[in-house]
Amino acid sequence: MKKTFSALLTSTLISINCLASTEPANVILIIGDGMDDQQITIARNYLKGAQGSLSLDQMPVRGAVQVLTVHNDDPDKPMYVADSANSATSLATGVITSRTRISTTAKTDQDIPTIIELAQQAGLKTGIVSTASVTDATPAAFVAHVSRRFCENPSMMVDGLIHGHFPVDCKDDVKAAGGLGSIAEQIADSDVDVVLGGGYKHFDMAAEAETKTVLERAKDNGFQLLTQASQLNQAPSDKKLLGLFSPSTMPIKLRGENGRIAEQPKKSWLNYIYKYLGSITNPEPMICEANPDFEAVPTLAAMTSTAIKYLDNDKGFFLMIESASIDKASHARNPCGSIGELDQLNEALDYALAFAEKSPNTLVMVTADHGQAAQMIPEVSMFADPAFGSFPAASPGVMARVKTPEGSIMGINYATNESIAEEHTGVNVAIFANEVGRTLIKPMQTQPDIFTISAKHLGLK
Ligand code: MG
Ligand code: ZN
Fold first, then answer.
1. DSSP 3-state of 224
2. Mind listing the pLDDT tens digit for each residue in 292-332?
3. Which of the residues 53, 84, 87, 147 is marked catalytic?
4. What is the pLDDT of residue 236?
5. What value does the CA radius of gyration of the chain take, rounded to a whole number of Å?
């Protein structure tokens, strides 16, 4: 009797194990670049209304993430504001590094294994999808190792110029010096199964010391090149996919009315003389409109759905999806650009969650790499209200007044500096997960913890 019960228990356990092993563990990590709570709130107000809710907001698990950075010269010393290179390195490798580094250690410049490399070694499939160039810092940190994020293609490795002006040097990373080459070359040489985004121009040039282009190297390494949205549904299933749908960053979905971005409030001459006198004229309100250039490229959701379809397999996969231009539009003081990009992130998330419904061991996480400049402020200063004293107050920096579909106006200010581009902020960011993340995500964790959570869920060491 006892023996029979034991045998029954054993066979039950075996069948539970068999059931578990038929469900592959997958991780879909969605990164909203610069998507702090200011950006999420601004987008929610515009897209769903102040009382509405984005797909993000409906995810059952939510926590906060500390963004960690160190000084390159003194890695024991924290730096409080991150860039996308060091923060993506934390997420991809679990190691805190210094700004502009792509999965290399601060000071000692050692390559750090990434979650994608570890997943590949374990026989899992891997993919990266981005609305930036696939060589941009966020996707690059999951695939490549280089001391400077700007070394995106062979022409930038030695005596390169950022924006055609500022020198950059990755001479230790050239293949001739025993390095892995530029980010584009490392992607071309990689075993990543799906790479989709922008960045054609970085592949369309001779590889280091070769007559072949980086693109030809990628094809020799088994990649099928896609350049049109229509090709996403016809791609061969027996090849790796390299989709490069624009020369660099893909066009954004929304833009300000007639291309407007944030503008400087104007002070009357009396207000210049004394702060309690005169008046302030804020920028005229604007709506967000469709960006006509967006029609030429696939949506983030379309790229996400193709990537998931290609990666779905018996052994599991790791997929990183980046919504890049929440950050890029915010650098450019373009609130409508960030709103449209966050809309794209939510549509891509819907695909990921629908897949996770069918493949229930899929951990879907959404987070940001760092805070960004945009800040929601009163569209007309509170102090102009008689209840507060009725005196003029101008927002520093530049501001936009965005008319929302629910008929109100949202004030958005950018004031991190007065130069050509805004800067990041050092705030912690949110993380959202589906039910699979219930026991994995804590109320507060660090960015390297997200690497550990991903590796643990995939069964990687
Ligand atoms: Mg990025
Ligand atoms: Zn940025």
1. strand
2. 999 999 999 999 999 999 999 999 999 999 999 999 999 99
3. 84
4. 86
5. 24
CA of 26 relative to ligand 2 center, distance in Å: 28
Question: Model's pTM, two decimal places?
Answer: 0.94
* Distance from residue 434's CA to the centre of ligand 1 (Å): 23
Residue 31's pLDDT is 98
The predicted-structure confidence for 320-376, as pLDDT tens digits, reads as follows 999 999 999 999 999 999 999 999 999 999 999 999 999 999 999 999 999 999 999
Tokens matching residue 364: 């879907």
Residues in the chain: 461
Element (H, E) at 30: strand 26-32
Residues 328 and 136: beta-carbon distance below 8 Å: no
% of the chain residues with pLDDT over 70? 95
CA–CA dist 394, 37 (Å, integer)? 24
Do residues 192 and 126 lie in contact, with contact meaning Cβ atoms separated by under 8 Å?
yes
Q: 280-281 and 266-267: which strand pairing?
A: antiparallel
Helix (H, G, I), strand (E, B) or coil at 127: strand
SS3 362: strand
Nearest-ligand number for the alpha carbon of 197: 1
Return d(Cα 269, Cα 280) in angstroms, integer: 10
Q: Is 48 exposed, middle or buried (0-12, 13-18, 19+ CB in 10 A)?
A: middle
Q: To 10 degrees, what angle do helices 447-458 and 84-93 make? A: 30
Is residue 84 flagged as an active site residue?
yes
In the beta sheet, which residues pair with residue 166? 162
> What confidence score (pLDDT) does residue 21 get?
52
Strands (E) located in 177-286? 194-198, 223-226, 240-244, 254-256, 266-267, 280-281
Q: Two tokens at 97?
A: 């590094």
Calculate how far, in angstroms, residue 389's C-alpha sits from the geometric centre of ligand 1: 43
